[in-house]
Amino acid sequence: MQLGGALIGPATNAECDEFLNAYKPSAADQKYGPWYWVQFGKEEDGVKAEKPAEDLEEGDSNRVKLEKKGKVLVDDLVKQCQHIKDTAPVRSNKAKKLRSQKELREEEYVKFNEEVAKIAKECGIITGKWLFYPTPESVDILWSKIVKALAVEDGVLAQTGAVHTAKVSTTPGDSGSYVICVYCDDSWDKETVGKVFKTLVEDLNCVSSAYKIDAFTILGIDSKHPSGVGSSLYGKNDFMTREEIDESLSRASKAKAAKKNKTLEEEQALDGEGFDPASESEDEERPRKKARN
């Protein structure tokens, strides 16, 4: 079902194509806002398609609760990091039993992440997303893969049971790239988040470098945060090595090339089909029988 810039699955491949033709990110006019959406949910099975936590209304009680408690944590982290910068040495000194700024900051980051996780779970804000930053030339292709993998009932993302929403920005950002978010239902179910990542890589040939929790988005934690805390909960190498990713992409590339060659061979084999070329014996005049004496 299409609904103003959104496709709600289960949908057929034909419905996906219709949606993708009508709502191309590269040609969007923002009539339906800053995002196009695809969602999958079968209410008869108790699975309802809902928008992720970061897109909750400003006045939502759970969001307000997270913002209020989270602000205390964020302010304290910034204060602690500034104190470390002002008092701790850049390098550790074992003789004087002094720890480096980096060691002390990392310790604060671990505590901060644990506290945010605790509050987020209390507030029911546990969704997060694998992030992609496609160029204007590649955004439509990547978005098409994700839409069909999620909206169609037997799509590879729908089959994970852990992804029910994805969205794409309708305009590029300051860097010139678009943003695509593929949401996981539970950010702290690491095994399932990893399963989604592997599905993206192995089945769709899409590699995300970072997974960000919605709680961080709501609290304003990004790569330029003054505390220096990492804005991602997971990275791509938490689930696959660089070699495994490269090998998977290489296999996909070879399979695509083989398919292309096979299609070309089939076209060549069909070239001229419908004609029944005459054999040499049919082209030649048959020899006449000699008359009997």
Overall mean pLDDT stands at: 88
Largest sheet: 7 strands, mixed
Fourth CATH level, the homologous superfamily of the largest domain: RNA Cap, Translation Initiation Factor Eif4e
What's the total number of strands?
7
Q: Please give the domain count.
A: 2
Percent of residues in helices comes to 40-55%
Rg, Å, rounded: 28 Å
CATH topology of the largest domain: RNA Cap, Translation Initiation Factor Eif4e
Succession of helices and strands: EHEHHEHEEHEHEHH
Tell the overall outline.
globular
In DSSP terms (H or I, runs of 4 or more residues), the helix count works out at 8
- The secondary structure category is alpha+beta
List low-confidence stretches: 272-293
The CATH class label of the largest domain is: Alpha Beta
The spatial strand order of the largest sheet comes to 1-2-4-5-3-6-7
Instruction: Indicate the proportion of strand residues.
Output: 5-15%
Pfam family, one: Bles03
Organism: Rhodotorula toruloides
GO molecular function: translation initiation factor activity
Family: Belongs to the UPF0696 family.
